[in-house]
Amino acid sequence: MSSPEALVRMLGHLAGRVRSGRALHNRGVLLSATLVVAAAPGRPLGLEVFDRPGRTEVVVRLSKGTGLPGRLPDVLGLAVRLPDTGGRHVDLLLSTCGAVAWLPWPRAGFTAGPYSSLASYRHRSGLFRLLAVPDHGLSVPADPALLEPALKRGPLVFRLYGVPGHEFARPLATLEVRDVLAGPDVAFDPVVNSAPAMPPAGVLQRLRRAAYDGSRRARRARLD
Predict the structure, then answer these.
(1) Which of 39-43, 69-73, 126-130, 134-138 has the highest mean pLDDT?
(2) How many other C-beta atoms can be found within 10 angstroms of the C-beta atom of residue 134?
(3) Pairing mode, strands 126-134 and 120-123
(4) Cα–Cα distance between 82 and 62 in angstroms, integer?
């Protein structure tokens, strides 16, 4: 009998072939953003952009998880590409969640509810998840095509938190999403492009790893 990972890998590959690329989050927009850290955290993450006060320019992608058309509610994605001092980048992927951080939940707008990494990260101080809470000053329906006109009215702002176990969330940074970026799309991969100090962990992460592997194979097959 096939393992759950093998089944998810096969489904990811099949979806990627059908969609000629991404298995999930195939409808999205690439954006410029600034990560603002006001103060160093009490417990460093081991990732410099979070561990020192300052402003860092990053690349963000907002997307619809299953690619439903128009304004239809969907599990929305917030992907962030962070520069790393070691010369490689780190990709973070968060999805709209429900009342608990591991439960993906469809939303009708990009600022209609919180985003979570869903899967946990392993850290020397214990397991934790990332959480992004949008400011509700600017409302954008769940249609990537509406992001550019909305951003002309001002930035989208997300407050980033680390949520360790059953403790209270700890503020990490503010993410200010400003402009649509021209040029080719970017393939974010939180599995391959993870930080050594905070590797993804847990059953959900193993399934995500399998899904991304299947999707990558589909993209490579399309390019061959």
Answers:
(1) 69-73
(2) 24
(3) antiparallel
(4) 15
4-219 is a CATH 1.10.3720.10 domain: no
Given a cut of 60, whether residue 191 has pLDDT beyond it is yes
Mean predicted lDDT score pLDDT of the chain: 82
How is 167-222 classified by DSSP, letter by letter?
SPPEEEEEEEEEEEPPSS-----TTTT--TTS-EESHHHHHHHHHHHHHHHHHHHH
CA 127 to chain centroid, in Å, comes to 18
Domain spans in the chain, listed from the N-terminal domain onward: 4-219
Q: 86-143, pLDDT tens digit by residue?
A: 678 999 999 999 988 889 999 999 999 999 998 889 888 888 999 999 997 788 999 9
User: What residue has token string 């990260």?
Assistant: 121
